[in-house]
Design brief:
- The chain has a domain of about 45 residues.
- About 25% of the residues lie in helices and about 15% in strands.
- The protein is built from 2 helices and 3 strands.
- Strand 1 and strand 2 form a beta hairpin.
- The chain is rod-shaped, with a radius of gyration of 19 Å.
Length: about 80
Amino acid sequence: MKVDYIRLFEYIIAKLTEVVMPIYEYNCPFCREKFEKLQRRADEQPACPRCGKPAKRSVSVFAGATDTAGSGCAGSAGSGFG
């Protein structure tokens, strides 16, 4: 049986994108509320939970700081365990 690895890969990626929903950080330019929202598409603009006006996505900082000791992905600065 011949396996079409490209189609298999495309199928797996399509299934993963159905279940993976990142958390985006937002802040409201009107009332300055900061919040996170779990959503499927990055281009959706959610309403602020405090005032209901459109919020803007802010730049998030990933907690995976480099560890100079080489003991893992996140050093004590980003992991909360150090």
